[in-house]
Design goal:
By secondary structure, the protein is an alpha+beta fold. The protein folds into 2 domains: 1-33, no CATH class; 44-97, no CATH class. It contains 2 helices and 2 strands; from the N terminus they run αββα. Strands 1-2 form a two-stranded antiparallel ribbon. Strand 1 and strand 2 (51-58) form a beta hairpin. The longest helix is centred in the middle third of the chain and has 18 residues, at 64-81. The chain is elongated. The chain starts with a helix and ends in a 29-residue tail after the last helix. The relative contact order is 0.17. Bound molecules: flavin-adenine dinucleotide (FAD).
Length: 110
């Protein structure tokens, strides 16, 4: 819940691996904030069997901005046209009720 030099150092290393030219950039400040995390670190998307016309799009576990364009399209098609993208099957609430349990995604920052 607080900013730290350790985080800035680790992220700087990661970013420089991808974009070496950012080595000349100066960090002026950083912010912190909490985000929602699901039990398997993957979003919960789609309808809820027990509640008709109730939809979930949450539990993004820190990936919500990145995947929002595709999630927005899929959720719009589901709600407005009742068309279910095959990807949605992997992210439904019901996966937590399966005996083998969901596959856990590894978070970059734990
Ligand atoms: C520090 C941090 C770093 C992140 N980094 C990344 C990243 O690098 N890449 C990435 O993809 N994602 C990242 N995320 C996650 C991303 O920000 C979220 O997954 C995404 O914003 C979730 O979108 P959302 O629309 O579901 O919820 P939100 O963006 O939280 O929007 C919910 C909205 O609903 C409003 N609201 C709440 N309650 C009510 C109410 N009762 N009535 C009316 N309005 C209400 C809130 O004010 C808010 O505007 C990060 C999040 C944090 C906190």
């Amino acid at each position: 819940m607080t900013s730290s030099i350790r985080f800035a150092q680790r992220m700087s290393r990661e970013i420089l691996n991808l974009f070496p030219r950012l080595g000349a950039a100066r960090i002026l400040r950083q912010w912190t904030g909490s985000y929602d995390v699901s039990p398997d670190n993957s979003p919960i998307l789609g309808g809820v069997d027990a509640l008709p016309e109730f939809y979930l799009a949450c539990g993004y576990s820190g990936h919500g901005l990145m995947i929002s364009p595709k999630v927005g399209e899929m959720m719009a098609d589901l709600i407005a046209k009742n068309e279910k993208d095959s990807l949605l099957g992997n992210f439904e609430l019901g996966r937590f009720e399966k005996t083998e349990g969901p596959r856990k995604e590894t978070l970059l920052i734990g």
